[in-house]
Design a protein that fits this description.
132 residues, 5-stranded mixed beta sheet, 8 strands, 3-stranded antiparallel beta sheet, Hypothetical Protein Mth938, Chain: A, alpha/beta
């Protein structure tokens, strides 16, 4: 069996253009004014914070908890990006941190994480907090 040097593996996912400001994020041509999840297939959905809402009193803010991370088991991304807001204030519960240790997780403020996501070519899930 010979190896054809002109056949290359596909780049996945397709590069996305993203930008953000306090309270919003733009992915390609669509602007969102709420937290979002970018799935391994490139689809964008609203982050469902309800699963973590009961922890708001304990953290002073609705944290990212293990209750929101079932998506990782379902989608099996090679990378996970957590955008912790413009100033990096999104808290993560210990349960979420433990789950994220099982993945190649990048946990950074939105202005720092977006360029890394734009450069990523492996399948990833991103959970992005658009405020604080």
């Amino acid at each position: 069996m010979s190896c054809d040097p002109f056949i290359t593996a596909p780049v996945y996912p397709s590069p996305m253009t993203m930008e953000s400001g306090f309270g919003w994020i733009r992915v390609e041509e669509t602007t969102y004014d709420h937290d979002i999840i970018i799935h391994t297939d490139g689809q964008v959905s609203k982050r469902k914070k309800k699963a973590s809402k009961s922890l708001k009193g304990e953290y002073g803010h609705t944290p990212l908890s293990e209750h929101e991370l079932d998506i990782l088991e379902t989608e099996k991304p090679e990378r996970v990006f957590i955008g912790t807001g413009n100033s990096g204030a999104l808290p993560l519960t210990p349960g979420a941190q433990k789950i994220l240790e099982e993945y190649h997780a990048v946990i950074l403020p939105i202005p720092v994480v977006l360029p890394l996501m734009e450069a990523e070519r492996k399948p990833y899930v991103a959970i992005l907090h658009v405020t604080c």
